[in-house]
Every structure is written in structure tokens, then in C-alpha cells.
Amino acid sequence: MKIGIDKLGFYAPHLYVDMNDLAKERGIDPGKFTIGLGQDEMAVPPITQDPVSLAANAAEQILDREDKDAIDLVIFGTESGVDHSKSAAVYVHQLLGLNPKARSVEMKQACYGATAGIQMAKGHIALHPDKKVLILASDIARYGLNTPGESTQGAGAVAILVSASPRLLELEKESTYYTEDIMDFWRPVYSSTAFVDGKYSNEQYIAFFQKVWKDYQEQTGRSLEDFAAIAFHLPYTKMGWKALRTVMEDAPEEVQERLKNNYQISTKYNRNVGNIYTGSLYLSLISLLENQDDLKEGDTIGLYSYGSGAVGEFLSGTLQSDFKEHLQTAAHQAMFENRECISVAEYEKVFEEELPTDGSEKKLNIDEDPAKICLAGVKDHIRSYAVK
């Protein structure tokens, strides 16, 4: 039985700031952002968008009534959840009108959460092949104004529908994973922003990739020549390339060129969104599938997932027949085209607007947010959402 990704959806806020503008305002050479990090634009979430609404908007675009009735498991991977107790999945379950006879849970392990959800989904579908699983990867990467991590912020969500007989990508059984307790990136429960040891995190990202890739080779007997492309978790778009090039030295030149070219294509969307934590690997996959015309049925795609703290995994999948017909390319391109570029001053104003933390009431103006699903306000410590 085939099990894999049947549909993929993505949503980002309608506001963004140009990284050239941000660099100039901060007195930094723009090339440090656009070339050094590989980032052109950074999504800016208005106060009317949080991880719940972002995820609901991503899923809403791909699910039909048949999907909603068949989904009996919702897994929400995030590291910027809105509640320490109630899962973000339960909110989205209600907003989308899913089958009430379903499990809904939230998973956390930095940027790895959605991958863990996918592996759980595979086991669930193996036992219940007539059902479907909705994986949500939604985050707002937030470090603070004028901080070293500011240029690697972002916001967005990816929705992944896992089923038997997938129309996009059959997920293969083999995968390799590795866990080690390290402190490269973390956010204590008392802090609204993350702490990061940037150099150390980069080193560990690469080291974990080398470990899981070596294990994958030994387990499967495969080499780089067997892959049409490899998509990476991308805290910034140059990061994956730093890892990939460490294992390419012995590959034939044409293989190196193919993987390098497809890697660049896989970063297109991420360059214009920024870091979305749990969803960044799967945004990279979406970018690859929607922007590379040379991919074909039977091509093998590698996926490297990394969550600081840290867990790494290498998994793979095989493209299905007519997969291009089941992508949301036009919708995603329209979303990018309709976004609004704001000034650095406007970005700072949006960034500093926050919800109350004392239980007081705050109603939000959702008329300026074009999203179908928005955060409408908070009262008595309870968030309320609106579906337009």
C-alpha cells in the first residue's frame, strides 16, 4: 500500500518587508542579508494572524468536503503555540469544520515537529487506509527588533494531507534519525523570543545532516545519484546548501549540478517568506515541485528535517503520476503577487503591537486583513477567530 502526501497548501501573511530596506535602516550591507543569508523578503504577520489562523488558512485552500469527512487525525507541529494546554489543532479542527470523530494534538520539537507528525500519520494510515491525516506546520519566527536574529524572522504555515494512494509524493519506508541534547536554539516558557547560538547551531545542523545521510546510505545502499533533488529545512536559504555541499565532493559533476540547481529552485518561496520553523522544509518542497518543470513521475526527492535541541531526520519520497495537476501553484503565485510591501517603520509598528496578557478585552480590526480566517480578538484569556 502506498502512503504519502496527497495535497500541500501554504499560507503567508499579506505583509512583508524588503530585506534591502531593513539592512539599510539597520546600517548593514544589504548583501549580508540577500547574499550571505539568501533572503530577499520577510513576511510580517499582523496582529490578526497567529499560528492558528495561519494554519487554518493554509489548510482551507486544499481541503474539500470529502477530505474533511475522512480526516480523523489532526497533528499540529509548532514551536510558537498559543496555549500551554489546549492544542492549536483543536482550534483549527473547529475552524475548518472537520469530522468531529477525530484526534487532534499538538507536537513540539523545534522545527522537527511536522516531520514527527508525518511519521505518525504513516502509521495511522497503515492501520486505517480509508482515513486521512492533516498535518499542520505553523510558526511565527520572532527574535526582536535590532537583534542579531532579526533578519531570520518570518511567518507562515504549511498544510499537508497524508493518505493512502497519494497523488503527490509516496513516502518511502526508509528514514534515518538522530537525537542529541544540545543547546543551539531554545525558548524558555517565560520568554516570548528565542535564544540562539548561531554559529553552534549552524555547525550542528550540518553535523546532524552528515550523520543521518551516512546512516541512510548504509541502510539503503543509495547515493546522491539516486536523487532528483534534496529539500532542506531552511532557517535561511543558504543553510541547506552549506550542508549539502559537504557530501557532494565524490558525486559525478552532472549530479552535483542537478542537485545544486534544484536546491536553488527549492529556496525560491523561502527567500520571500523567511523562517517559518516547522513548515520551512515543506515550503522548500512546495517551491521545488511548483517551480521545477523537469521533475517527473518516479523521481526520488530527499528531505532533511532538523529541529534544534536537537533531532534530525533524512527521509525520502517518490513523485507520482500527474503530480503537477494536484499542486496549488496558481493560488500560491497569486498570494505572493497580492502581498503588500511595507516600510521598516511600518514593520516595527506591526511588530510591537501585542495582545493583552492580563485577560483584558481587545477587539481586532480584521477588515484590513484579506485572509479568510483571522484572529478577531481576545477576552477573558480566550482567543476568538473569525471565518469571513
Can you describe what's shown?
The chain has 388 residues and is of the alpha+beta class. The chain has two domains: 227 residues, Thiolase/Chalcone synthase (Peroxisomal Thiolase, Chain A, domain 1), CATH 3.40.47.10; 153 residues, 3-Layer(aba) Sandwich (Peroxisomal Thiolase, Chain A, domain 1). The protein has 13 helices and 17 strands. α3 packs parallel to α5. The chain is globular. It starts with a strand and ends with a strand. 47% of the residues are buried. The mean pLDDT is 97. It holds the Pfam family HMG_CoA_synt_N. Its EC number is 2.3.3.10. GO terms for molecular function: hydroxymethylglutaryl-CoA synthase activity. Keywords: Acyltransferase, Transferase.
Layout of helices and strands, plus pairs?
Blueprint: E1 3-11, E2 15-18, H1 19-25, H2 30-37, E3 41-44, H3 51-60, H4 65-70, E4 71-77, H5 88-96, E5 103-107, H6 113-127, E6 132-141, E7 154-164, E8 169-179, E9 185-186, E10 195-196, H7 198-220, E11 229-232, H8 237-244, H9 253-266, H10 268-271, H11 280-291, E12 300-307, E13 311-319, H12 329-337, E14 340-342, H13 344-352, E15 362-363, E16 373-379, E17 382-387
Parallel strand pairs: 2-14, 4-5, 4-6, 11-12
Antiparallel strand pairs: 1-7, 1-8, 2-3, 6-7, 8-13, 9-10, 12-13, 15-16, 16-17
Helix pairs in contact: 1-2, 3-5, 7-8, 9-11
